[in-house]
Write a structure and sequence with these properties.
- With 222 residues, this protein is of the alpha/beta class.
- The protein has one domain (6-213): Rossmann fold (3-Layer(aba) Sandwich), CATH 3.40.50.300.
- 29% of the residues lie in helices and 20% in strands.
- The protein contains six helices and eight strands; from the N terminus they run E-H-E-H-E-H-E-E-H-E-H-E-H-E.
- The chain has an eight-stranded parallel beta sheet with strand order 3-2-4-1-5-6-7-8, with helices on both faces.
- Helix 4 (135-149) crosses helix 5.
- 42% of the residues are buried.
Amino acid sequence: MNDKRIRIIIGHYGSGKTEFSINYAIKLKKQHEKVALVDLDVINPYFRSRLQESMLNEKGIAMIASNIKGSGSDLPAVSGGVLGPLQNQSTQVVLDVGGDSTGARTLGRYEEYFQDGAYDMFCVVNVNRGQTETVEGILRNVYAIEKTSRAKVTGLINNTHLLRETTVEDVLKGQKIVKQAADKLGVPIRYVVALEEVAASLPSNIEGEIFPIKLYMREKWM
């Protein structure tokens, strides 16, 4: 996981962006002393990384929400809590950002920290979702987010899934489409994400680092 210190995670609704962000932060914590997961998702109030704040804190990960605690509002607030990890060079930062160009507007206020070579922005793709089931749909989503956020995508993440019904074939189907999109964008497939039991059966020569995950945002019955 030799990614830049600041990692921006984007992805359309239903991509599994938040599940990846949580698993990614947990894996980072095994390698670094200071890790912060910043919830900048103001699009989906039901599946937000801040809902796992207690669990993340127990693991030593700072969970920072962009809203003001106790306000009852999901409007993003520029607070010291968000800016601190961006400014602290000893902290590894994961920004979980809303899934479309509207959600990506929250990134604009932190633009000064997104200098070339100082960050990575990974787009999580699930080709089983209507808006990103084709190469054209993926590109449209990426270009819209880049325009709004004023940051560039540096890699794609294949997270093609059907939750617990996901098969190796599902992941490989998604890999073909994500690969075509990555080639058109001129960026690599950075990670190939799957539940642990599926990830164990993926071919070792697949493009991108195989990234096994657990489901933290969904109960076993979901």
